[in-house]
Amino acid sequence: MYRVEKAERIADRIFEFWINAPHVARNAHAGQFVVLRIDEKGERIPLTISAAEGDLVRVVFMTIGKTTTQLSSLKAGDGIRDVAGPLGHPSEVKYWGRCIVIGGGAGIACLPILARELKEAGNEVLSIIGARNADLLLLEDELREASDELVICTDDGSKGYHGFPADILKEQVAEGNVDAVWIIGPAIMMKITSGVTREAGIKTFVSLNPIMVDGTGMCGSCRVTVGGETKFACVDGPEFDAHLVDWDEMMQRQRTYTDQEHESLDKYHDHVCRLEAKLNE
Amino acid sequence: MSKRAAEERLHDFDEVDHGLSEENAALEALRCMECVRPHCMKGCPVNIDIPEFINAVSEKKFHEAAKIIKAENMLPAICGRVCPQEAQCEGMCVLAHKDKPVRIGALERFVADWERKEGMELPEVAAQTGKRVAVVGSGPAGITAAAELARAGHKVTIFESLHAAGGVLIYGIPAFRLPKDIVETEIQQVLALGAELKLNHIVGRSVPVEELLAYDAVFIGTGAGLPYFMGLEGENLNGVYSANEFLTRVNLMHADRFPEYDTPIVRGSRVAVIGGGNVAMDAARICRRLGAKVSLIYRRREEDLPARHAEVENAIEEGVEMVCCANPTRIIGGPTVSGIECVKMEMCEADDSGRPKPRAMEGEGSTFTLDVDVVIEAIGQGPNPLLAHLIPDLELGKKGNIVVDEDGRTSIPHVFAGGDIATGAATVILAMGTAKKAAKSINEMLSS
Question: Nearest-CA residue of chain A relative to B208?
Answer without folding.
Answer: A27
